[in-house]
Amino acid sequence: MTEEHGTDEHRPPVRIERDGVVATVVIDRPKALNALSPDVLRAVADAFDALRAEADAVRGVIVVGEGGRAFVAGADIRSLSTLTPEEGAESARLGHRVAAAIEGFPAPVIACVDGFALGGGLELALACDLIYATESSSFGQPEVRLGLIPGFGGTVRLPRAVGLPLAKELIFTGRRIDAATAEAAGLVARRFPDRDALLAGARATIDEVAENAWTAVALAKRVLVEAAGTPTATATDLEVAGFADAFRTEDMREGVAAFIEKREPEFSGH
Q1: Is-contact 73 116, C-beta < 8 A?
Q2: In angstroms, rounded to a whole number, what is the distance separating the alpha carbons of residues 269 and 212?
């Protein structure tokens, strides 16, 4: 979490950049370390809603913070200081709306962390499918140091990412971990020496994903998200349903035919 130090005037707090099949959602409040005010949270949700309208043309999304010091250093403390319990609950619901928009997006979403990913920033990254990070990045859930607990999904998604014992330790202590420790714990998928390499690596992954059947990738993401944390019997039922849905697609017929005919598939996304 962070307290605001200055403002970033004359530009929206979140913008979308497009480069072919890749969309980048940039949180652009570097003076505030990209802190998640209610307006920023709504802007992130709106960005994913806008991209959802053109999902057939997007094969992957990168989420990144501007400025090089922080991905997102947390929520705005000043905006939290006057909230009633009811308003606090509404703030948490807004954070969960953002996470649901990311998890519900049919293409993979990669959080590119360069700097701090703390509090709500880590929770935002956890809602993404993959976390890539620079060597200088750090991660933590410091809410207890303010008399709070994670409110945007940290108590749910962090244990799934790193296991319950480490998640409890990080949440109970408010401790930060570096990128190497985060990678060893399974929180970070890949580390990079600097921001340029980070963004290039994320782009390379999305380009690789884009070579596959878009319908299959979307189905796989749906099953992975819906099955997370459910009993084995429920999870396997979800997988069976997703597997059956794949047989309804033109891409499945094309992919199998191409394999049999020993040629490259020409997926249509249908």
Answers
A1: yes
A2: 9
Residue in this structure with the two tokens 């920023």, named with its chain if needed: 40
CA-closest candidate to residue 143, choices 164, 165, 119: 119
Q: Which residue has the tokens 């340029």?
A: 196
Cα dist. 250→52, 54, 124 in Å? 21, 20, 34
Q: Which residues pair with 132 in a beta bridge?
A: 112, 190
Contacts of 102 by beta carbon, 8 Å cutoff, 6+ apart: 48, 63, 109, 124, 127, 128
Cβ atoms 218, 107 nearer than 8 A: yes
Give one DSSP letter per residue of 181-195, joined into a string.
HHHHTTS-SEEESSH
Sequence-ordered list of residues with C-beta below 8 angstroms from that of 16, at least 6 positions apart, any chain: 23, 24, 25, 26, 47, 50, 51
Which pTM value belongs to this model? 0.93
Helices (H) and strands (E) in the chain, counts: 11, 10
The catalytic residues are 123, 143
Nearest-angstrom CA–CA distance, 148 and 101: 24
- The one-digit pLDDT tens for each residue of the chain (270 residues) are 444 444 555 789 999 999 999 999 999 999 999 999 999 999 999 999 999 998 889 999 999 999 989 999 987 778 888 899 999 999 999 999 999 999 999 999 999 999 999 999 999 999 999 999 999 999 999 999 999 999 999 999 999 999 999 999 999 999 999 999 999 999 999 999 999 999 999 999 999 999 999 999 999 999 999 999 999 999 999 999 999 999 999 999 999 999 999 999 999 889
